[in-house]
Amino acid sequence: MQLKQENPDMVANLSHRVQNLEQENEVLRRYLAAVPLDLEAIIDLECEEVRAERLNLLRNRVARITGRIDNFVNG
Fold it and tell me: Is residue 75 packed enough to be buried (19+ CB in 10 Å), middle (13-18) or exposed (0-12)?
């Protein structure tokens, strides 16, 4: 109460900012509720990326080993 009497402009400004934040929060809450979260699809994508990375590493390893064998046989 004392702050309101001493700084009415500051209190009004803060009150207005709180109101704006509450409105933004409500908009974000509605937006998130409208976005379907398909966790299974997200997990599938992550697994696919991991598989692709592992396959690439395996291909690189096979290429290095094949190169060493070729060098040994031909060198």
Answer: exposed
The domain ranges of the chain are: 1-35, 38-75
Q: Which residues of 41-53 are buried (b: 16+ CB within 10 A; e: fewer)?
A: eeeeeeeeeeeee
CA distance 18 to 37: 29
End-to-end Cα spacing for the chain: 90
Distance CA 43, CA 2 (A): 54
- Look up residue 61 and give its two tokens: 């390893």
User: Which pTM does this prediction carry?
Assistant: 0.45
| Single-letter code of the amino acid located at 69 | I
In this structure, the number of other CB atoms found within 10 A of the CB of residue 11 comes to: 13
40-53 per-position pLDDT tens digit: 888 888 999 999 99
What is the DSSP secondary structure assignment for residue 37, as one 8-state letter? -
